[in-house]
Amino acid sequence: MGEGVWAISYWELAIRIVLSVAAGGLVGLEREWSNRAAGFRTHILVCVGATSIMLLSIYGFSEFADEANVRMDPARLAAQVISGIGFLGAGAIMRNGFTISGLTTAASLWVVAAIGLCVGAGFYFVSLLTTFVVLFSLFLLNRWEKRFFSVKRRQKLEMNVCCQSGHLGEIVRLMETNGVVVVEMNVDKKESSESEKSDNRVNVHFKLKIKDGDMLVKLVDQLATHPYILSFRQLVSNPA
Question: Are strands 154-162 and 201-209 parallel, antiparallel or unpaired?
């Protein structure tokens, strides 16, 4: 390799790769523990890949550093990592009805790529500090958020019910009896098929405020056996 700023020892290269494995793996463990699509190995691969590209961008072309017509730009390949990591993040985001999930996982993939770039550039303090902040956010802030904001979380249910006089009111009273607050209710007749309309069926969208998971499980059990409810879908509002 060349001399000066463009030179790096094999020992230093190995340290940076191992550090990127550790940083990406720590973040990936939390995602694996939460049973997300992108987990332990995916985060390691993203972080190591970003580190390798950063190392390549800085030191991979050192033999051309002394050429008169060559201008070294260590940030060029790194910039492509930042923009290119988006396709992995998009693959982790899924939409199911009213629900969008995977945003936190997509963000964690993006940030481990940034951590990998920092490690590859030898920006150790920032890479370690960022890893700590990410783990603090995913582990501790996640628990704090669930504890203090669970009351504000909304659950959405889509039901196909028998549209007879008093049936819908009875379903609403059942929810309120279980401590569930009906925030919003929309009757959607357009989505019902002709056969459903002839059988007096209707689709109803509920937006509910539920305090905890036990209350939700109890409500779902009762709705599943209710004679006026033909089918329903539970759509959790804010999965990470």
Answer: antiparallel
Q: Are strands 229-236 and 154-162 parallel, antiparallel or unpaired?
A: antiparallel
H or E element, residue 235: strand 229-236
Does the pTM of the predicted model rise above 0.70?
no
Which residue type occupies 35?
A: N
> What are the tens digits of pLDDT across the range 157-196?
778 887 767 777 888 888 888 777 777 777 776 544 555 4
Name every residue whose Cβ is closer than 8 Å to that of residue 217 and which is 6 or more positions away in sequence.
none
- Tell me if 187 sits within 8 A of 201, measured CB to CB: no
CA 4 to each of CA 13, 56, 117: distance values in angstroms, whole numbers, following the listed order = 16, 16, 21
Q: How does pLDDT run across 94-144, given as a tens digit for each residue?
A: 765 545 677 888 888 899 999 999 998 888 999 999 999 998 888 887 777
CATH number of 153-236, picked from 3.30.70.260, 1.10.460.10, 3.20.20.140, 3.30.70.370:
3.30.70.260
